[in-house]
């Protein structure tokens, strides 16, 4: 079945460092792809999304590009802040509407 | 309501007891999802609904777990004869039934089996 694979964390960075969190997927159709974020003590919320190949989703300085040829949707940010410390989840939504998440990657940013 | 509401927010139960977890989705959302998040773990898919139907129940861990949705709205997740390994946060989400639509999450129910 369809699945999502994320790099294991935690990812530990200094403030203003460049961030990449890898995400690859397996899907039989053409899914929509998402990044969700869970800040400490809060619920999951959508960070960004992309619905077709070569689409770029972006929000709050984060971006990710839907790469069909490499079945990837890596999350990037040019300069992280302490307030970006959270758990990030990559997800795909099948044409059937089933929504599948990766295992999550914890990001810790230190001043 | 304005968002996805789950109740109770916390539940402590004795091993062997049955529990019911409730989810009130956003009005008009046809898709509803249940996930389980264990400590330090990711989101484990349990089941999802399109309207009142559950196209995919493959994530339910055992026959002790069941879920239903009535009137295309409220859903309940029932765990019978709870075990300690059932302890986790149970999350519910809802969305419009479109591939690109955002899923909105509730705050979850933290279940502790003692």
Care to describe what's here?
- The complex is a heterodimer of chains A (111) and B (114).
- With 111 residues, chain A is an all-beta fold.
- Chain A is built from no helices and 12 strands.
- Chain A has strands at 3-6, 11-14, 19-21, 23-26, 32-38, 45-50, 56-59, 62-65, 75-77, 86-93, 99-101, 105-110.
- In chain A, strands 2, 5, 6, 10, 11 and 12 form a 6-stranded mixed sheet that branches. Chain A has a 4-stranded antiparallel sheet with strand order 3-9-8-7, with no helix packed on it. Chain A has a two-stranded antiparallel sheet with strand order 1-4.
- Chain A starts with a strand and ends with a strand.
- Chain B is mainly beta and 114 residues long.
- Chain B has strands at 5-7, 10-13, 19-24, 31-37, 43-50, 53-56, 65-69, 75-79, 88-95, 104-105, 109-113.
- In chain B, strands 2, 4, 5, 6, 9, 10 and 11 form a 7-stranded mixed sheet that branches. In chain B, strands 1-3-8-7 form a 4-stranded antiparallel sheet, with no helix packed on it.
- Chain B is globular and about 40 Å long.
């Amino acid at each position: 079945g369809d699945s999502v694979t994320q790099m294991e964390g935690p990812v530990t960075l200094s403030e203003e460092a460049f961030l990449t969190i890898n995400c690859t997927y397996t899907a039989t159709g053409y899914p929509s792809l998402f990044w969700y974020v869970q800040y400490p003590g809060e619920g999951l919320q959508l960070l960004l999304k992309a619905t077709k190949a070569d689409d770029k989703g972006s929000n709050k300085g984060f971006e990710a590009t839907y790469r069909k040829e490499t079945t990837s949707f890596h999350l990037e940010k040019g300069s992280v802040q302490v307030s970006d410390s959270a758990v990030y989840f990559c997800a795909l939504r099948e044409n059937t509407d089933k929504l599948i998440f990766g295992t999550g990657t914890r990001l810790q940013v230190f001043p | 309501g304005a968002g996805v509401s789950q109740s109770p927010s916390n539940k402590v139960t004795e091993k062997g007891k049955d529990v019911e977890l409730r989810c009130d989705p956003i009005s008009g959302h046809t898709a509803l999802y249940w996930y389980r998040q264990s400590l330090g773990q990711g989101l484990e898919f349990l089941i999802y609904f399109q309207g009142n139907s559950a196209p995919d129940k493959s994530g339910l861990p055992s026959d002790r777990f069941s879920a239903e949705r009535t009137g295309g709205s409220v859903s309940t997740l029932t765990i019978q004869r709870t075990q300690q390994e059932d302890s986790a946060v149970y999350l519910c989400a809802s969305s419009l039934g479109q591939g690109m639509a955002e899923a909105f999450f509730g705050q979850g129910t933290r279940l502790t089996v003692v």
